Amino acid sequence: MNHLTPDDIAQFDEEGYLVFEGLFDHDLNERIKADVDQLMIDRETDKRRMLMAYPELGLLTSEPSVVDRVADLMNGKKFVHHHIHARWQLPGERGAPWHQDYAQIPHTNRSHLMVHVFMYMNGLNGEVGDLLVMPGTHKKVMANDAYRQFQFEDLPGSRTIDNLAHGSIVIVHSALQHARRPKPGGGIYKRYFIDTSYCEEGILWPSYPNIAEINRVALETGCDRNGKYAFLYDTSQFFERKDYMNTLNEKNQGSLALQL
Ligand SMILES: [Fe+2]
Hints:
The protein has helices spanning 6-15, 26-44, 55-60, 64-73, 211-220, 242-251, and strands at residues 17-20, 79-89, 96-99, 114-120, 129-133, 159-161, 168-173, 178-182, 191-200, 205-206, 238-239. By secondary structure, it is α+β, with helices and mostly antiparallel strands. It has a single domain, classed as Jelly Rolls (Sandwich), CATH 2.60.120.620. It has a five-stranded antiparallel beta sheet with strand order 1-7-4-9-2. Strands 3-8-5-6 form a four-stranded antiparallel beta sheet, with no helix packed on it. The protein has a two-stranded parallel ribbon with strand order 10-11. It is globular, with a radius of gyration of 18 Å. Bound molecules: fe (ii) ion. The site of fe (ii) ion (FE2) has 3 residues, from loops.
């Protein structure tokens, strides 16, 4: 039941995203929210811990209802977990202008799949922040900020997602242009937002600097669910971007094809 239909996969390939409303049951959703609540308190009090060390957030990175769907999009290829971010957003939250999050330096192709999973524990209700997506843009190769000048505007063909049940997720191709449009907020609505991300194996992906430590904690705390999802926490699939940036900046002139 955690699997995608051929229609789902075709829709993802064409549009670059899939919505699953109310995917998480009430208990799981509440447990995750409690972890985010604790995380936000810890951030205020400077007791910073990596997200993987929070029991529910760590486990969320291998949540079968998410990861098994991602596996279907990967079409039999192995893949690894790239990151988890989590927070809540309150009335007055600023927006995030149009952008895409595919991790590649520089952007030259889309040979391997990377997805982000956007999770809304309190759903979306038109307050605080709407999700905007631009279907099909994942098929184009462009810089992360290529649409930035459009800020939070509706664009020809763009869609606004502002009404989702609690515990909903949206799986997006990481190269899909998307934005968070700020809304004035109606009162007490708290917009819980978590994103996790997964990368197809076969190439090296730019990672956060502490990926080895994050993966060590994931395995130590049982995020691999008795080994079934241990493949997600494989540090060998990543490289450290800062080690390469100087060389790239020196060589990134004219047609890179001439430098291969
Ligand atoms: Fe994003």
